[in-house]
Amino acid sequence: MRKSLLIAIPLILSFCGIRGTPTPPRRIEIPRPSLRFWQMGRNLVLLPGLAEKTSGGEKIFYRRIKIWMAGKKAKMLLWKGKPAKKISVRIPANFMEQRVRLILEIKARKAKKALIKTKFFVPRYPPLPPQNLKYEIREEGILLSWRPQERDEKGRKVVPVGYVVFKNGRRSKPIFTPFYLDSKLQSGKEYRYRVCSLLRTSPPLIMSEKSSQLKIVYRDTIAPSPPPKLEALVSGKDVFLQWEKSPSPDVEGYIIIRDGREASPLVKGTDYWDRKVEKGKHTYRVVAVDRAGNRSEPSPEAEVEVQ
Questions:
Q1: Spatial contact of 158 and 152, defined as CB atoms under 8 Å apart
Q2: Which residues lie below 8 Å from residue 22, measured CB to CB, with a gap of 6+?
Q3: What pLDDT does residue 1 have?
């Protein structure tokens, strides 16, 4: 009888919709973020570096991040799953040149507890941004230059230790001269540049506000330099040509000129076999072609005679 009841009770409970003690919801643990930040003007720019998944591969749905400075809440952001990659927080004037504790409190759905990340930093009165940003189109690319400002926002004399260039929103590594050569360009594309002065080049960076914007539609109209030397050797009815590469950095290839006419497709290397050449004397030259299609002057001449 007792055995029959032991079998019957679970069946009755199951029929009534009662399945025993409910399983508690499974909790996740948020991986520690790779927080990076820098000061730009009077703002603190943060890259929280939040992980997208747990160590077990489960996707994390973030809900909230609170940012505290020196014990005071500076900002709170609410998210629906996907967090912001960059956050900007205004630094109060009374925090300048004082050691400040920065706290990030991060919460996510199903997390065991909020994740706390703490950093210390000393905000400084930022330097003034560079002035008179201008450019010059050169064979190597766009050369930017500017006039440094040797004062901070309070009017005190400071000498920038370097600069960073923003190209279409992307920041360069620190540079240490008041000019910058950009050679990674495409003809016909628009580029937007801004420059910041640096008061500190090691993390966390301290930089000025961005300078005024310089907008350029780049068009490469400058011809590359020609190959400086050309040699030609005859082998039966074939002619082997070899030349020194053009010193220009944006050369895409070369075209062979035989007796004043094009005699090859675009050659990527610095040598070429001209096959089945007619008998007689022939003169050769090589022309360099850059990525925009500009052609150099011909190289020095090489003369051969095919028997």
A1: yes
A2: none
A3: 54
Q: Write the CATH number of the domain with boundaries 230-306.
A: 2.60.40.10
The superfamily in CATH containing domain 36-121 is Immunoglobulins (2.60.40.10)
> What digits encode the pLDDT tens for the residues 109-161?
888 788 888 889 999 999 999 999 999 998 888 999 999 999 999 999 999 99
pTM attached to this predicted model = 0.71
Closest residue by Cα to residue 54 from 27, 73, 74: 27
Would you say how long the chain is, in residues? 307
Return the HEC string of 99-135. CEEEEEEEEECCECCCEEEEEEECCCCCECCCEEEEE
* Sites in the chain below the pLDDT cut of 70: 1-26, 79-81
Residues of the chain with CATH 2.60.40.10: 36-121, 131-217, 230-306
User: How would you class 130 by CB atoms within 10 Å of its CB: exposed for 0-12, middle for 13-18, buried for 19 or more?
Assistant: buried
Let me know: does 229 contact 242? Beta carbons within 8 Å. no
Rounded Cα–Cα distance for residues 147 and 105 (Å) = 41
* Contact of 287 with 255, CB cutoff 8 Å: yes
Select the CATH number that applies to the domain covering 131-217 from these four: 2.60.40.10, 3.30.470.20, 1.20.1640.10, 3.40.50.880.
2.60.40.10
